[in-house]
Amino acid sequence: MKTTFKAYDPSKDFMRIRDFLIDTFTLYQRPFNWLIDRWNFCRYFAVPVHSYYNIHYFSVPIDFDHSYRNEIPFWEKTIGIWENEDGSIVGVVNTTNEEPGDAFTQIHPDYTFLYDEMVTYIEDNLADRVGNTGYVKLYVNEGSKLEQIAIKRGYRKLKYGTPFLEYTINEIPEPQLPDGFVIKSVLDEDDVEKRRIAKSIAFGAHYNPSYWPPASAYKEMQKAPDYRKDLDLFIVAPNGDYASFCTIWIDVKNKCGNFEPVGTHAEYQGMGLGRALLMEGFRRMAQYGATRSFMDSNNEFYCKVGFKETPYSYYPWIKYFTM
């Protein structure tokens, strides 16, 4: 089967890749490629946030009034696309923009012969480079054909992988909240300042304002094609703090609903707020016709709220090479 490589065109290819991810989920009937929650969140929140940090991404932040550089076009330039003779997408290479050298492949099951070519593209275009040393951290589905390519090309598998978890949405327990706590959505209230504080303190307990995600990133996320304000949820504490939060993304075709991100303010952890918010999230997913939810995580919290382990996981494989 003949294929052609093309560079990413942001005017049309975001949605084409989004549709490709939906269609290939239908073929695999499980997470193998990225799901649309991660694709939306990466472009419309994670990458814009990284514009306000230095090139080491999560080290010392800088003035949020002025971006270090606009990361979106840098991220877009790293994306590679392979098309078949009909012009349909059959393979994609991309990075999360979260750490130098990280790389992911998205593949149609009939075109896994492209893996070797895709890894060549990764090493040429996505590698971290310092002097004469190149580095790639390639994420590989356990048991996939990409493993054999990684071995052949000198990659080393790291010890810790990430499992895929699944939640079946049927009878959903009623959310149980402590007295005075209330679940709301961005449709009800959109206080960006409280949202950015909650996220920063939830992930890393960063109380200092220089670490808070920029308000502009929350506005950018609302531009994502699959974003819905009624599915961007949070719990308000009696004192007005945003104590817990999650954003839900719906794949209507595959009847899936997924969370990205999920977090609880450090001072409100251990109170059952995360569980309550997910139960409300499942309830809202069901209203959109979703019957399943997936999560890739080692956090035991998700199994405690009802996610089940699947046989599937992925691992990082690394390689150093001379440029």
Written overview of the protein:
By secondary structure, this protein is of the alpha+beta class. The protein folds into two domains: 3-162 and 313-322, Aminopeptidase; 170-290, Aminopeptidase (3-Layer(aba) Sandwich), CATH 3.40.630. The protein contains nine helices and 14 strands. Strands 1, 2, 3, 4, 5, 6, 7, 8, 13 and 14 form a ten-stranded mixed beta sheet that branches. The chain has a four-stranded antiparallel beta sheet with strand order 9-10-11-12. A hairpin with a 7-residue loop joins β3 and β4. α2 runs antiparallel to α7. The longest helix is centred in the first third of the chain and has 16 residues, at 13-28.
Write the layout of secondary structure elements.
Elements lengths: L2 E5 L5 H16 L7 H15 L20 H8 L1 E5 L4 E6 L7 E6 L7 H11 L2 E3 L2 E9 L3 H8 L3 E2 L4 E7 L13 E4 L6 H11 L12 H7 L10 E5 L5 E10 L4 E9 L8 H15 L4 E5 L3 H5 L3 E15 L1
Parallel strand pairs: 4-6
Antiparallel strand pairs: 1-2, 2-3, 3-4, 5-6, 6-14, 7-14, 8-13, 8-14, 9-10, 10-11, 11-12
